[in-house]
Amino acid sequence: MRHFSLAYIDGAFVPVQGNEVVDIVNPATEERIGTATLGNRDDVRLAVAAARRAQPAFGRSTKQERIDMLLRLQAAVLARTDEIREATIEEYGGPLSRAQWVADYASQCFANAVKTLEDYAFTRQVGEATVVMEPVGVAALMTPWNSTAGSICNKLASALAAGCACVIKPSERSPIQAQVIAEAIHDAGLPPGVVNIVNGRGADVGSEISTHPGIAKISFTGSTPTGKAILRAGAETMKRVSLALTGKSATVILEDADLAKVMPLALSAGFLNNGQACIAGTRILVPRARLAEAIGYVKTAVAGLRVGDPRDAQTVIGPLVNQAQYDRIQRFIRAGLEEGATLVAGGEGRPEHLSRGYFVKPTVFADVRNDMQIAREEIFGPVLCLLAYDDEEEAVRIANDSPYGLQAYVFSSDPKRAHRVAERLEAGGVMVNAIRPALTAPFGGVKQSGLGREYGVFGLEAFLEPKTIVSA
Ligand code: NAD
User: Fold this and answer.
1) Is 277 in the pocket of ligand 1 (CB under 6 A)?
2) Is 147 close to ligand 1, i.e. is its CB under 6 Å away?
3) Which domain holds residue 274?
4) pLDDT value, residue 187
5) What mean pLDDT, rounded, does the chain reach?
6) pLDDT for res 1
7) N or C: lower Cβ tally within 10 Å for the chain?
8) Could you tell me if residue 348 is inside a domain?
9) 451-461 pLDDT, tens per residue?
10) Residue owning the nearest CA to atom 13 of ligand 1
11) Is 330 contained in some domain?
């Protein structure tokens, strides 16, 4: 049993002011593996004060000094890659291959930021004016539980590259992962106050951050309702806000696609991270004439998916994060049945071979209409919908008929045609005939999937503000 009760403020691990203690439960075994004492508003005030003290000097640091800091962070996070992977598996049941990817990605974020920074011109001439890109000020980085290490490192790398001191608020559901990252940050030996971390609930720590006048910028990843609350709360002090939010992504399979090749890809886009991924392709659009064929592939593929111990390299789907998430998925499966969708694979309950853990059956529905609850709401578990369409126009219309627009996928044997369809989809990003993230290209959502972009130059500029200087 481990206990976590520290915040990281002003370059040191300090006892938290809050006193709420929460259990940490391994979702694969349902065993209590530790406890965490959560921070409160007082911890936030101390963290913001430390960041504000650090901001003036850090904001004036040179590009080279920031590159050196980012390289130190890269090395420190890289040294903890195994610990990050283990914490990711233990704390939320991320399957091994995904957990390894997240752990590798965490240090890569700093290397990517170094490259971006090396090529970036902070001063440029625009007409008669000199435009200087300045750090926006102290930034708050708030992250969800399903990608703790990745979200923190990605945001932190961009914020530091821009010259913003930070207050990080990880999810209260990921204290182990947050602790590993905090230790790596400490090892990097940055000036005190440049990075501060307070773990706690959204209702107090998150809310204090969203309203605190000392915070200039919020970079948030999480659900759309929380993103809206943060945007409203931040309006009073006119915080700059970037939001990476909920998805309900469409996978468009065009009628010329080789289903034997693309159905496994479409299913892995949907079941990514046990279905707990913002970019999961959960609405799979199939030409009506090929629906029966697609259902055949789904049945065979899902029957062969290993569900179980996330540490097992053969496992494709591990447990959901907690009992609440398990119950939520069951509700969605029941809703799908009640609304008249046809179960093609999976269904209610735990897989028969598992007696413990928050495991659900990977589930696929056919005969789904796009107005059904299971097609409109983000389920955040391994539950997918097959939607039939008659022609390309209808496919595009159904794909775009969603309040969300984070990611989309297009599969076709004709790359030009696939590209043409990709251009018509309302999404922040589209992957064509592949599942391959582009980690320096802009990432974010349109519509209610977010505001602003992360990664590369776009991610850097989210922490910068242009100043125009005109001289006689
Ligand atoms: P969540 O919105 O419940 O919580 C995210 C963070 O916000 C947590 O740190 C939480 O403590 C905090 N929070 C909650 N209420 C708050 C408030 N009122 N004020 C300030 N902070 C508050 O989301 P979650 O359940 O942790 O994560 C899952 C969601 O995140 C899904 O909707 C998923 O799609 C989304 N997500 C999006 C991306 C993306 O890049 N677009 C990536 C990962 C996850």
Assistant:
1) no
2) yes
3) 250-439
4) 98
5) 97
6) 87
7) C
8) yes
9) 999 999 999 99
10) 202
11) yes
- Model's pTM, two decimal places? 0.97
Instruction: Give the full edge-to-edge strand order of the sheet including 2-4.
Output: 2-4, 31-37, 21-26
Task: Return the pLDDT at 210.
Answer: 98
Can you give the C-alpha Rg of the chain in angstroms? 23
Q: Do 435 and 392 have their domain in common?
A: yes
Which amino acid, 213? P
In a domain, 277, yes or no: yes
* CB distance 223 to 382 below 8 Å: no
Ligand 1 atom having least distance to the Cα of 207: 19
| 148 and 233 assigned to the same domain | yes
* Same domain, yes or no: 168 and 227: yes
Domain count, the chain: 2
Taking the centre of ligand 1 as the mean of its atom positions, its distance from the CA of residue 209, in whole angstroms, is 14
Averaged pLDDT in 10-residue chunks for the chain of 472 residues: 95 97 97 97 98 98 98 98 97 95 97 98 97 98 95 98 98 96 98 98 97 98 98 98 98 98 97 96 98 98 97 97 97 98 98 97 98 98 98 98 98 98 98 95 98 98 98 92
Does one domain contain both 263 and 190? Answer: no
Any atom of ligand 1 within 6 Å of the Cβ of 210: yes
Tens of pLDDT along 395-406?
999 999 999 999
CATH no. for residue 291? 3.40.309.10
From atom 31 of ligand 1, which residue's Cα is the shortest distance away? Answer: 223
Same domain? For 55 and 193 the reply is yes
Considering the domain architecture, whether residues 285 and 422 belong to the same structural domain is answered as yes
Q: Which of 40, 102, 146 to mutate to test the pocket of ligand 1 (most atoms within 8 A of CB)?
A: 146
97 and 218 in a single domain? The answer is yes
Residues 197 and 328 reside in one and the same domain: no
> What CATH number is given to the structural domain containing 238?
3.40.605.10
The residue with tokens 């598992």 is 354
